[in-house]
Design brief:
single chain; 421 residues; Rossmann fold; 2 domains; six-stranded parallel beta sheet; 15 helices; 42% helix; globular
Length: 421
């Protein structure tokens, strides 16, 4: 009896194995997509209370942390008695408990479930802060005509992950420099021009109105320093830790430490050790309030990382900031395509002072200089200039956003072929 032995060399075997895994993966995800679509239809995913099951304006929110961005716009639609659908991935989103009559808030599931629902949505307009449309798992729905991006911070539009805004039809901007950035990217990538609309910043308008309402209330006689770091290896608490907190306490000022919420999960041991070493006192507070308005309003100066909260505190509250500059790898961001320096990088050194190993030991003098010393006037003038560059139509953001969406809706309904992409 002859025995036949088959031999496959390691390279060929590895290739065949990869092919089998690849085919299996394709079949799995194809069947999964069909199952999601089937469940979506069975679960009543189709909207039944609009003409033809098509929503006029749908807002997609990744979660309640973006509520401050959408709230002024939704309030404006409610005031005008115009219907708008707010689709959120948070079951405890504040919108769900509001007594709206024209804002129809719905929880559409978390994570991938919410994305799957949005991938099949039927709407004339979809408004969202979420980048990377048609890049990763969030796809343009064949049933949606027009996608509009609303930023969640008054900063560069080319500092999203690469191709982050490429497949939106329109972007709501707050400064001319943002329009210039998008136009340069479109030219380099040979893409059609999007509609760029200077609407302003609705949530910053609301924040400013709230600040003015609370002006002069609950003020302290001595300065209050707010340390509000981000999380991760570049954060202040990771870079400077207990030594920095000790330096802050030695200033004699009241110190409020508000770690990033993610720190209590991803850096629990670090936060626990710091809170144990520096327990709360009359002059030291560890803050975990859901709403950060109280501590931002109380503080006289903010110490933070390279974070969006810096611009809220500096531009809306009109107060000085001290920041740390992290290592920033531009290669994965759209700004890596742009020869011009991002507005954020050129503006931050003007409206704040950088915390470095060299001035770390003189933090008391740095704080005093920013609040009332030699730097205070220069920082104040820089803030005014930054506002003029990145906060157009102050106080009109929600109204201008609603104006655009309602006008675009009328235009799309006159042109059934509005889904151009």
């Amino acid at each position: 009896m002859t025995t036949i032995t088959l031999y496959i060399d390691p390279g060929t075997g590895s290739m065949l194995f990869s092919i089998i895994i690849g085919i299996t993966g394709i079949l799995f995800f194809a069947l999964r997509a069909l199952w999601i679509k089937f469940k979506f239809v069975l679960s009543g995913g189709r909207v039944k209370d609009t003409e033809g099951g098509v929503l006029p304006v749908a807002v997609f929110s990744e979660g309640k942390r973006y509520w401050n961005v959408y709230e002024p716009v939704l309030d404006e639609f409610e005031k005008r008695q115009k219907d708008i659908w707010y689709l959120t991935a948070s079951s405890d989103d504040p919108a769900l408990s509001r007594d709206y009559k024209h804002v129809h808030a719905q929880f559409i599931g978390e994570g991938n479930k919410a994305i799957s629902r949005m991938n099949l949505i039927k709407a004339d307009i979809v408004l969202s802060t979420t980048p990377s449309l048609d890049v990763f798992q969030w796809k343009r729905s064949k049933g949606a005509k027009w996608y509009v991006h609303i930023p969640h911070a008054p900063v560069d539009l080319n500092m999203y992950r690469m191709f982050g805004l490429d497949y939106y039809d329109a972007i709501l901007a707050s400064g001319e420099y943002q329009i210039d950035q998008i136009r340069r990217l479109e030219k380099m990538r040979e893409m059609p021009a999007k509609e760029m609309v200077l609407t302003g910043i609705p949530y910053m308008d609301s924040l400013k109105a709230k600040i003015e309402k609370h002006a002069g209330k609950d003020r302290n006689n001595s300065p209050v320093v707010l340390l509000a770091p981000s999380w991760g290896s570049n954060s202040i608490l990771n870079r400077y830790g207990s030594e920095f907190i000790s330096k802050l306490i030695s200033t004699g000022y009241k110190i409020i430490i508000r770690p990033h919420p993610q720190s209590f999960t991803s850096e629990k041991s670090l936060i626990d050790s710091l809170m144990s070493a520096f327990p709360s006192t009359d002059m030291l507070e560890w803050n975990r309030d859901t709403d950060n308005f109280g501590v931002l309003n109380e503080a006289d100066i903010l110490i933070s990382d390279f974070s969006g909260i810096i611009y809220e505190f500096s531009l809306a509250f009109g107060k000085p900031v001290i920041y740390t500059r992290p290592d920033f790898d531009r290669s994965v961001y759209d700004c890596s395509w742009d020869d011009e320096e991002p507005w954020t990088f050129t503006t931050l050194p003007k409206i704040g002072r950088e915390l470095t190993p060299e001035n770390f030991g003189n933090i008391a003098e740095l704080i005093e200089s920013c609040i009332s010393g030699s730097d205070s006037v220069e920082l104040s003038e820089a803030r005014k200039k930054a506002i003029s560059e990145t906060w157009c139509h102050m106080g009109e953001g929600a109204a201008r956003t609603a104006d655009y969406l309602i006008s675009k809706l009328e235009e799309l309904r006159k042109e059934p072929d509005g889904n151009k992409k």
